[in-house]
# Entry
Amino acid sequence: MVRPSTLATTLGAIVVSATILGWGGLAAAQPGGDDEIEMDGEGDGSGSAGPVDEGEIEMDGEGEKDLETDLAADPTDTVKIDTTSRELKPVSWQDIVVVMRKPFLKIRRTDLMPFLSTTMNDNMIRHYAAGAQFNYFLTDVLAVGVEGQYYTKQFREPFDLVGRQARRLPTINKYNFSAALNFHYVPVYGKFAILDQKLVAWETYFTAGVGVTQSEVVPRDPRFGSFNNLLITPNIGASMRFFLFQWLTVNVGIRDYIFVDRFEPVGRSDTMFTSPDVAKENADSALINNVMFQIGVSFWIPPTFEYTTFR
Amino acid sequence: MKNQSFTSVTLAGLFAATALLIPSVASADDPPPRRSALDEQPAVRHRLLLVAKRLEATPMFESTINADFRHFIGAGLKLEYHLGDMFSIGGMIVGSTSLDTKLTKRVVETLEPDVNNMTREPSVQEFTQRLNTIPLHGSIYASLTPWYGKMAAFGKAYVNFDFYFQAGLSFATLKSDCASSICNDPMPGIDPAPADPLVNADDNPNNDPPLNSGFRPGLYLGGGIHVFINEFLALDLAIRDYAFKDNPSGADFNADLAVQDDDSRFLHHLFVGVGVSVMVPFKVKRTR
# Structure
């Protein structure tokens, strides 16, 4: 009674040890470290038949076949395989493609991004804006969203110089707020190492949308009132997104807001275009490209995700 | 009782101290916690050393960003030697031509065509001839390349890239061509005859020499990206800031009614550059 028990214990210990060592070996072969995203249902080292990993997809034709069905099958109902004419291609290392799984999935997730932005291409007036974007990812590369911005202004050095040196008062508008409906597409995806230590994934995405911008005339003579314009504003842009956590990314980008703005008419005085309404009716129009640099932090909802593909 | 109480407290204290020490002792005796075998390994194996120990020669184009009065567009050459995978030293020189900005064009359209010293506004010549150009500028710098990686466009085209940051010294030669018939004040802001109360400085900055030409040393900052087309060719995109003393308009900046040296100030001149980098030697090494 003692020997069989000892033998069973020994065998059991060998099996368990082999299983544990096997798991250890597998684990060491994975691209791991603290950066790796843990998978639900990944091995606990017990070797027991646990629940099927929800992350795996069942393949057609795979899995255990019913033995009785196999035995009952007609042995003549087979297809003879021609092994003589098959082209034999040796497998080389070039046939084996190793692709690192994306560390971040966006599909069916919402991205809430507060951001700050500033003007890049106006040498008279610089706008600073605080805003937010709300984007929903239909796929991993396509998103639809809305954005809103509130602007503040700062006059730049040439605004004063033109007045003092050239004795000219510039005609400029400031922007109050804008809103847009946008589509985003992600064509470029990559990863980089920082100081040869830490890997960070990133991507580049393009944005196109349409919205409205409210601009306000800055009167050359403060005695006369200003007027507002509500402008249809298409926009295009390119941005980069850096993936820091499952729930947080950092975005930087450039956006071009394009609109036909209406400016204070030349010659406005006590006798001409005095009231804002008349001035607005006689406003001068010009096509404006308001190029803004944006930086923001995205919070992703839900904050986690699960893979539905093989590792 | 007191003694017993003291003993109890002492024992309790010793017990607590022991309890606190046990984990640290245990952790010292036990094998270290399990870590991934990859923890100590390099982030990237068999990496192409695309820049290390290579000379980078980059013919390039540059253009100002958001210039005030004149855009500068030019071509030049960047030479850089990469001492290692992250550090490099180099220099660049760019020759430029100038284009008036939209602001300048709009101001010029409204100025009086001829010089009129009875008004305080400049004429077209007084305004335009005072503006300076930057025919030549460049820098010497040290560069850090802390980020490298690879990216895929549309899941098909895989390319290597790196980001770099540069800091160093800049220089520029500035030029303004104000004719002697326009800039004809021999002593701007200076009373030519202090003893004579009837003769004063003309208080007209429009006829003063602009004092915005010559050699200017300064500081340089830059940042950019290499996108490697193959193992020895890369697209080089960069933003560069050449900071030096300048008075681009050549006019009276500090409103003392004279153009003098103190109207120049330390200004940032932002450029965007694009070029093609050729890496020598052409053959590239890999890490282990």
The longest strand of chain B covers residues 133-153. Chain B has three helices and ten strands.
